[in-house]
Amino acid sequence: MPISNCLNMAGSYLAATATPPETCVPGRRRAPLAGATTRSQQRALPKPRSLGAGSHRLAVSSRHRRRLGVVSAGNTGRFGLDSNSELQVTVNRAPDGSVVEVELFATNTGGSSLSLHWGALQRGRKFKNNDQNFQIHLRTTDLHQGQHSAPTETRRHSSTERIARKNRDVMQLLSKPATSHVNGVVQTSSKNPTVLDLFLKSLQDKGSCEVLCKKLFKLGEKEILALFLEEQGRTKVQLATNHVEPLILHWALAQKAGEWKAPPAGILPPGSTLLEMACESSFSEATFDGLGYQTLEIELDDDSYKGMPFVLRSNETWIKNNTSDFYLDFSRRVTKSTGDGNDGSKGTAKALLEAIADLEEDAQRSLMHRFNIATDLAEQAKDAGQLGLAGLLVWMRFMATRQLVWNKNYNVKPREISQAQDRFTDILQNLYKLYPEHREMIRMIMSAVGRGGEGDVGQRIRDEILRNNDCMGGMMEEWHQKLHNNTSPDDVVICQALMDYLNSNLDITVYWDTLNKNGITKERLLSYDHPIHSEPNLRSEQKDGYRAEGEGFMVGVKVNPVKELPSGFQELLKFVLDHVEDKSVEALVEALLEARAEVRPLLRGSSERLKDLIFLDIALDSSVRTAVERSYEQLNNAAPEKIMYFISLVLENLALSTEDNENLLCCLKGWNHALGMAKNSDNQWALYAKACLDRTRLALVTKGEEYHHTLQPSAEYLGSLLGVEQWTVNIFTEEIIRSGSAASLSLLLNRLDPVLRNIANLGSWQIISPIEVVDELLTVQNKSYDKPTVLVAKAVKGEEEIPDGVVAVLTPDMPDVLSHVSVRARNSKVLFATCFDPDILSELQCHEGKLISVKPTSSDITYRETAESELLVASSTGAQDDTSGPSISLVKKQFPGKYAISANEFSDEMVGAKSRNIAYLKGKVPPSVGVPTSVALPFGTFETVLSDKMNKEVDQNIQSLKKKLNQGEFSALTEMRHAIVNLIAPVNLVKELEEKMQGCGMPWPGDEGEQRWEQAWMAIKKVWASKWNERAYFSTRKVKLDHDYLSMAVLVQEIVSADYAFVIHTTNPSSGDPLEIYAEVVKGLGETLVGAYPGRALSFVCKKDDLNSPKVLGYPSKPIGLFIKQSIIFRSDSNGEDLEGYAGAGLYDSVPMDKEEEVVLDYTTDPLIIDCSFRNSILSSIARTGYAIEELYGSPQDIEGVVKDGKIYVVQTRPQM
């Protein structure tokens, strides 16, 4: 259905869904007295005319102002405006005296627009509109036209008229359903396989048997499975059924469609009877795992056959496929299933998709058949969970976009399609009610299917098209015949085109324009089983009759009141319908969103009319998108505040269509806060808005990835089974996204981004570290490039390794400046920069494979193509400085004879620099800075535990895996990590660690039970195992570091349950300024800052000679914060970190004993963001801490810490590299 029609249908339908209230929407500025419009007045008011593009306001002249009170109740007063213009004011008091109606009508204004500036008095009290005069546009007309002559089709209200939205908390729109996912795996209810499932699997498990074609037919409550297969070079037909009664197969072969040809005598199964044009063969009884079935095998002698038609006979009863013969089509081949997803079915509800493919031939007979089949498959889709519903959506979407046949010469009445559609949408309504976690997917299915409804409405309209309007022959009769035989969604477009044609005074170009805009061409009209050859050629006197029938067809449902709709909802919908074609759409979009917000609570309940409400919400959603798309041109030169406001509107619409919408709502609150900052002339508003933009864009990317992960595999697998064109399959997920609000939102963000960057003086680049194109840096981190290479990476997570030979990494992604990959880029002297301008990035990608020279400045990057000779000179110069990369030597550490040591025992023979530095800080930092108590498991502990006899099997496994690794089998790294977590803790290790922790005043996990100690022991083993993570292993190989000599101590600290975490570089890493501190701050634990968590941290700089004046460089855009209860963290502390010439920091893992809780962050309630005084205090304290520690060590420091209740804690420091 065309989007433009959705609201027409919803509006026509919903204008009468609520019992009309006695008052209009509170705050609606249309009648002089809010709440005073009665139904009688609504009927009496003449329809307004369009104001026209050149209209202007004309205030009531002061010399004609009079108090309305002078007009007695029930009387009319007239006021002269100009020489021949008049304002008529009528006052009517309701019988009970509760309200007063005031109607104003201006005449003979010459087409000018009028505005009324007015107020109200009540015994000395004056009412105003927020301290401003009320202003209402008046309907105008010329006397010679008549007062009620404005035609319906030209209705248009002033864009300044708008509803007043309720002041509701954004979080009232929150939807956070319980998920059915566990560890990222969709949980589906198990379904016992049938005997036919087992029979098919037994054939597929044969290595010599390939299923070429498969079809499952229904036999009432039983089924018959028909297979065309190849086994050892011979082709066969294999039939199996769970039908109980003895069966006879009446069959033939076909070399063309519709043919029945008797098979050759040489291929007949034993006991067969050859007839003139067919053959009859009996099924044989068999069992599988105790389950009985019947089977029949036919071996073919020729591969020229196209298929096999057949029917069945049970005793004297003939069994057919509904009213047709069964047919196994040999030409429709399926991919051989490997059972492991290598057939393209990975990430899909495979069994459901194959069932759909088996039934597609039946579904193509008509839309009635398709909807009935979909209804039958809905239970199976539900049992398969999210992926099952995804499969159903893909199938319905292929149908809606005409990738599948709608009708194959099957006569079906409109009522039959409507009834089938209604059955299917009833099932979807029930699933929507019972499974909140799947509502978003179900809603998309319903949008593709359409509502269904009272089946005889379309039938009755169709019959009356000819009967009542005196039009036999031509286009109308041809359409009548199409409606009679194969009604389809195209008919909605055809009807709309006819209505537009009628409303345009029979302009035939308008008819074709509507058809073509919705994808219906002359060729498509001719392609129907009952083609439409002619174009409409109506007479003027036929217009009214056809218009009435067309409007009835477009509504297509029986209108009954929805009792649950809130008071005033009818007026709200009426406002929408009055303004649905306004050129200025702001007021319309506000009203549409208000309507959606009002309906939303009913969608969460168990309304009797839930399906109607869902389709209403779909129509409102669609109308928002249509209106916003219409506004793009107007926003070209709009102020940034206006674009921001439209972003907030579209974001709200997207949140209302999304089930898990907490992050979107937090983004929305951020935009509202940014608008408030701009309104108050806060000089940080653009910087804050840029963070909101980055977070919103990140949310869209995440949503797109979620859709792609859920839908695209099903689209690809089902598309291959059904023979859907590949280009359609390739863009399936993209088109799903483009059909929603996300696409509109993305366009608005792209329009605002350069504006904000300009206002905030951000430029197009952020230099993080002073062309081959890759999707992710992660995919090439272990690659080496022979020539100096500029890498354009579409995604950088933050934990990757920079490949050898790379001199620059340019990316649109936004890793934190102090993330691990950023630090390693600086240490390796690699240019690392974020590009905010998509045009620049696109231009860079066009240089793939070419030689370019890239030059950074303090805030920008220039690049140009260069010659091979220049590269050779640069390489030669670099080679002179190259010392050929000598390996970094490590001294193998020995086990000191202790499983656990306290901080006063830390030495370079026992622990790494991380532990030693934290022990050094204790007692030396200012009293305002806390340092957590620490103990450690020293170097050599892992090797000693591994050599313990109780871990003999693990040791043998690891030694075997090391050999594989040395031979270049890098998959052994994962196996190594899995093997290490099977280690058993020696009794003495547990005893010594308990003594050291309790002796230092730290809580001992074992006091809370054995399970708590097991959690701690697992965390320790994961730290040891991180020595063999891919990032660390490839990093050590690059610098020829002997991996066997790398030892891992474990630093044990009590976790400070942080409000904020920070990282400080006491020399600004971007500019190299030693007089300026640079720091980044996140809410919650620091893992979101240093790890691979998307979004940016709050960043600031502070001059060392003015530590009380931090300057914010960027506000946070990270959507997630990590929080944890009181717990213990086990930190990696190797002898391969902080070595001169090698940046090993951050390569290995630190693991908390307890799992962190992920919390969606709302920065509009965070004092660090909204309270300038608090922010200045915290950031100054962080800067002073960094300065004090740098003074203590006498060199630039890289410091990690947290803030708890305003107090600073430092958890580690190392030399800044």
Which structural class do the helices and strands define? alpha+beta
Overall mean confidence score, pLDDT: 78
Please give the largest β-sheet: 7 strands, mixed
Uncertain spans, ≥5 residues at pLDDT below 50?
A: 1-74, 122-130, 133-159, 179-190, 335-340, 464-470, 552-560, 770-775, 871-886
Q: What Rg do the Cα atoms give?
A: 37 Å
- How many DSSP-defined strands? 42
Lateral strand order in the biggest sheet: 30-42-41-33-34-35-36
CATH class bucket of the largest domain = Alpha Beta
User: How many separate structural domains?
Assistant: 6
Structure overview:
Its cofactor is Mg(2+). Residues 1014-1216 form the Pyruvate phosphate dikinase AMP/ATP-binding domain. Residues 230-330 form the Alpha-glucan water dikinase-like N-terminal Ig-like domain. Keywords: ATP-binding, Carbohydrate metabolism, Chloroplast, Kinase, Magnesium, Metal-binding, Nucleotide-binding, Plastid, Transferase, Transit peptide. The protein is built from 36 helices and 42 strands. With 1217 residues, it is an alpha+beta fold. The chain has six domains: 195-329, Sandwich (Immunoglobulin-like); 350-449, no CATH class; 455-549, no CATH class; 569-760, no CATH class; 765-870, no CATH class; 901-948 and 984-1215, D-amino Acid Aminotransferase, Chain A, domain 1. The strands form eleven sheets. It has a seven-stranded mixed beta sheet with strand order 30-42-41-33-34-35-36. Strands 14, 15, 16, 19, 20 and 21 form a six-stranded antiparallel beta sheet that branches. The chain has a five-stranded antiparallel beta sheet with strand order 11-12-13-18-17. Strand 5 and strand 6 form a beta hairpin. Helix 17 (610-630) packs antiparallel against helix 18 (640-656) and helix 30 runs antiparallel to helix 32. The protein is globular, with a radius of gyration of 37 Å.
